[in-house]
Design goal:
Layout (H helix, E strand, L loop, with lengths): L37 H6 L2 E3 L1 H6 L3 E7 L7 E8 L2 E11 H4 L4 H16 L9 E5 L3 E9 L6 E9 L2 E6 L3 E4 L9 E14 L2 E8 L7 E6 L5 E3 L9 E3 L1
Length: 240
Amino acid sequence: MDSAVSRRTFMLACSIGMLGAASLSGCNNASTEESDSPASEQAVSEVITPLSLVNDDGRRLFFVVDKVAKDAQAQLYVFESGIMTFRSNVTAELGELSKMSDDEIVELFTEEDERYKSEYHDYSNPYYLFEGNPTLQTVELETDDSGNNVTSETLVFGDFEKYQIVNDGDVVDMNGSAWSDGWQLKLFGVVETAPIYETYYGGFNMNNSADNGCFVMRVDSPDSVEFSFDEVGTEGTETV
């Protein structure tokens, strides 16, 4: 494991969904413009939509950051075939993570998250614990006035219970809160791929002020993928 990542790089990450949806100015790397370059279109090997972000087979790692930058603090989410298998309560610098393999990243966050769990937490600084794995239920599409163009997407998850660990290990049931109706991840704009050292990151903007900006993943190169909203009528989505 990369020794450059120290314990001090970790801090409590803001909880998604706890403050409710609020408008953002957007991640610094946000863009919804499409390239008209034929060469660029030919180079794209994969189109990634919000539905395919978490629903495709295999493991995918995602990072919640305020911007794509080497010193940005990143919270880790891991999805496997529509199921969220891990969500960290701690963060690490995205630049340091860019030098590590996926396995090393998961191991790092798992160990540091367990260590953080054992520390003292009060109600303003709790440790969030899940029972069951949040599973994708549906993807809601919001459209413009024509009804043909998608302007934002919301991934809706269920099949889990959520708790807080506070004080000397007291477990507080959170299932009477808004989380009891599920967890929603709203995406409202594309984050074009940007480099950090030898690694590239891209994804979507998040409509949640608690997480302050971007939901991104590592990609092989700027031309290897294209991030785009799902189309109206895509199987597994519903228009709201």
